Amino acid sequence: MKKSPSVLASVINPSFVLSVAGMCLGAIRMLMMDVPSPTTQGESVELICSYELDEDKLYSVKWYKDDVEFYRYVPNDWPPGQFLPLQGVRLDLSKSGSQSVYLRHVDLNSAGTYRCEVSAEAPEFQTVAAEKKMVVFVLPTEGPKITGGVSKYRVGDTVYVNCTSSKSKPAATLRWFINDEMAKPEYVMEHSTTLHSDSLETSSLSLKFIVNEFHFRGGNMKLKCTATISRVYTMSNEELVFGTGLRQQTSGLQITENMSHVQSSSTTPAWTSTFWTVWLCLFFCITYKFISTGIERNLVDPFG
């Protein structure tokens, strides 16, 4: 079956051929886009946009944050790199160029979706783009705080303490530990996250349980609370509390009382017999010495 002239004409249309040739010979490709995330407030970061032009020539590289342009690199302009001011973006022009931009001292306003857009020159102006999200953390300035505890507990007492994280973004994940072992789920109670006016957050987690013998190690009990933000940050705070009136201690006193009872029920304690033995030996020694002295005196001077 032969194709009609109109169909053949559309297939071999010059613009179509040039377009296909341009795609095959002068393709522009995005190789890699890197946006450090998560990053922490105050850090400086480099955003990388790596591409390949083949036979094409670069027309422009444009950077956007949340669809708002903040930097463009046009080789034929002077200067080739231009910064368009945007909140949260502190660009270092001296370190930015055709394949990367350098942001100084990021903060919460720096968080968002960044897009790199690369365009080739005429006639095709072929364009490729890639985007990635940047998350910015604000880390706590100190560890979590433990409140509500007392210095001593007895078996049967109720432990009811609270752990509150310092302000951060996002709020820290809290965990309770008893003697370095994670507390049972039924012991903990999570409270709602508190949002502050500076957009930072604090979290709170309570620990409540009835004290049992196994909660003590050597008469003491260690309560520890940890605050974690992703894999970036972990801090902890702990309290060492002491046990009183424990059954282990009572058992020890009972052993002492039993030993005392055994000793008092004996009719001839060992120390009594020893005392009388020593006293009798001393008496006989003195008596013997006295008699011996008298005999010697009579032998030496029989007439006195």
Sheet-strand content, in percent, reads 35-45%
Characterize the biggest β-sheet: 5 strands, antiparallel
Number of helices: 4
Termini separation comes to 173 Å
N-to-C SSE string, H for helix and E for strand: HHEEEEEEEEEEEEEEEEEEEEEHH
Helical amount = 10-25%
Mean pLDDT: 78
The unreliable regions are: 1-25, 245-278, 295-304
Which strands sit side by side, in order, in the main sheet? 6-5-4-8-9
How many strands? 21
Describe the structure in your own words:
The longest helix is centred in the C-terminal third of the chain and has 31 residues, at 270-300. This protein has helices at 5-11, 14-25, 247-264, 270-300, and strands at 29-34, 39-40, 45-52, 58-65, 68-73, 81-83, 100-103, 112-120, 127-134, 136-137, 145-147, 152-153, 158-164, 173-178, 181-182, 188-190, 194-195, 201-202, 204-210, 220-229, 233-243. β8 and β9 form a beta hairpin. The chain is built from four helices and 21 strands. It has 304 residues and is an alpha+beta fold.
Keyword list:
five-stranded mixed beta sheet; alpha+beta; five-stranded antiparallel beta sheet; 4 helices; 304 residues; rod-shaped; single chain; 37% strand
Please render the helix and strand layout as text.
Layout: H1 5-11, H2 14-25, E1 29-34, E2 39-40, E3 45-52, E4 58-65, E5 68-73, E6 81-83, E7 100-103, E8 112-120, E9 127-134, E10 136-137, E11 145-147, E12 152-153, E13 158-164, E14 173-178, E15 181-182, E16 188-190, E17 194-195, E18 201-202, E19 204-210, E20 220-229, E21 233-243, H3 247-264, H4 270-300
Parallel strand pairs: 2-10, 12-21
Antiparallel strand pairs: 1-3, 3-7, 4-5, 4-8, 5-6, 8-9, 11-13, 13-19, 14-15, 14-20, 16-19, 17-18, 20-21
